[in-house]
Structure formats: C-alpha cells, structure tokens
Amino acid sequence: MAGMPAVLCTLPLPDPYAERISRAASLRVLGRIPVHAELCAALRADPVDVLCPQLADVVDAEVLDAGLPLLRGVCVYAVGYNNVDVAAATARGIAVGHTPGVLTDATADLTMALMLAAARRIVEGDAAMRAGEFRGWEPGYLLGKELRGALLGIVGFGRIGQAVARRARGFGMRLAAYGHRGVRVPEDLADSVQIFDDLDRLLSESDVVSLHTPLTEQTRHLIGEAALRRMKPTAILINAARGPVVDEPALVRALQEGWIAGCGLDVYEDEPRMAPGLAECRTAVLSPHLGSATVSTRSAMAALTADNALAVLAGRLPVHCVNPEAAEVLR
In this model, does residue 300 exceed pLDDT 70? Predict the structure, then answer.
C-alpha cells in the first residue's frame, strides 16, 4: 500500500505474525532462504523498513547497506543472532531484535529427550526393530546408562541451561554448571547446582555434558578434540545450542573410536549438512533443529518477532534488542 512502511520476511512466519504486521505495514515474503546476492538485490529493488530473517540468512554489512537508507531494524525469528553483524548494524543505526525466553521450555524438553534417547540407546533399538534384528530379550542386549545419580555438566547456565537443570533434577541427576565465580544461580537451584570454574574438570567428571552456550568467537569449537578426550569413555554429549560450538569432525572421530559413549545433537556445524561419517555413527541421536518446534512456541516466537518489528516501525527499539546503543544513531 502506497505510503505504508514495509517489512520483508524471507520465510513465512506462523500466526499471529502476518495479522499483526499487516495492520501497520505492507508485508512481503520471499518464501525461501535466498542466497546472499539475492537478498541484497531484493532489498535494493524494493526497500523495506524492517527485515525479519531466519538464522540461515546471513545479514552482514553488505546486506545492511543494500537496505539503506530505509532499513531501520533487523528482527530475527530466533533467540540466536550470530547470523547478523551486530556491530555493523549498530554503526548504521539499525536495531537488531531477537526472541529470547519464549522457547526456553521447548528447548529444555528437547534436550531431555536427546539425553534420554542417547542414554537408553533408543535410536539404536528403533533401528534394530525396523531391520528385524531383534531376537528377543537378552540380559546384555543394548545396555544403557541410568540418569539417576549421574552428574550432568551444563555449559551455558542461562535460561535454557537452568530449565534443563530443573528437569534433570526430577530424574535424580546430580547437577554441575561451568561458570566463573559469581555466576547467577536461581534461588530454587542454589542447593542443587555445583559451579565449576574449570571447564576441564567439568568435562572429566560429568556423565552427561549438555551445551547451552551462545555462539561467539570464544565458544566456537569449544568442544574439540582436546575437550572430547577429557570426557569419560562412558559419557554422553548433548548439543541443543549452536552447531559450531562443537568441532563436528572431531566428534565423529570420538564416536567412531570410543572416546565417548554417545551424543545427542539438535544443531550442526554446517546446517543442514552433517560432517562425513556422523550419520553412520550408531550411538549418535540426531534431530533436525527441533528445539523450538512446538506449535505454541513457534507461535510465541512469531508474536515476539512482530512486536519487535512494530516497535521499530513506531520509532522505538525492539522489545528485545541486542544493540540498544543503535538508538544513538537511529535516523
């Protein structure tokens, strides 16, 4: 509509996103994840006030420049925003929003599902049943690990890490989290969680290591060959955070050579591709980035993405803004 602000999504978002946005702006949806040059061309050809990308969309300085001078906000449909060059956005007065909080419980549930499946070798059992390999109950068949009494080492003790701790406590697990002195521990977990300020110690003592850290230059390949070799040969690694936190080829070697007992992954270093050999690792439980994949959570994420975009259209920072300093140079 002439004179109305404009919003661009690369993929269609669930209700109530379109309804909310359409009240205040014209909405365009590409319907696919575009290649970098295509996204730049789309922004130049038909400028928009707000871009709502997916994690798979690389929003770098070139994309931001293609959106100028109209582009005022980038509102990511995700809690993570490592696909956006935040420093470049700030320098251009472009606010960056994301969707924290609303996917905490869904991701924590998925983490426990991966943990249980890996510990009790459910995927191996499922494959055996489908292949007709099950010959009846045997005392030593597909023995797994009990979670009760096992030490869960949590790396990244934010909202999701804490939610996982609460669930794991219900299974009778002992809890530890990696963090420096002064890390915030909620009151309800204060008597349950031991804080390790030494990651090596956490890795070497934990029966299950669960990753919930954001992706930064410091956490990229945080779990590489050295870290995997420090873990117990009976230990399980869970990653529901970001794929590049784990050196995936090193993980494949760890599984093939028995450095650890198994893993549960919901994210991958080069999504949607997996490292060669990972699919053939029988002790790997692999889910296709389903952490937030519930109807209610994806709807809540869509609502929050809309709220972020509407705030920008109204001349304010997004409800959840990762670079509030952009306000100093907002046009």
Answer: yes
Architecture of domain 6-102+295-329 in this structure: 3-Layer(aba) Sandwich (3.40)
Answer whether 220's CB lies under 8 Å from 206's CB.
no
Give me the residue spans of the domains in the chain. 6-102+295-329, 104-286
Q: Choosing from 120, 221, 271, 316, which is the catalytic residue?
A: 271
Q: Of the listed 121, 242, 298, 320, which one is catalytic?
A: 242
The pTM of the whole model exceeds 0.90: yes
**DSSP assignment of 58-86:** -B-HHHHHHHTTT--EEE-SSS--TTB-H
Examine the residue annotation and report whether 180 is marked as an active-site residue of this protein: no
Q: Respond yes or no: is residue 148 known to be catalytic.
A: no
Secondary structure element (H or E) that encloses residue 307, with its range:
helix 295-313
Average pLDDT, the chain: 96
CA-derived radius of gyration, the chain: 22
Fold of 104-286: Rossmann fold (3.40.50)
**Would residue 316 show up in a list of annotated catalytic residues for this protein?**
no
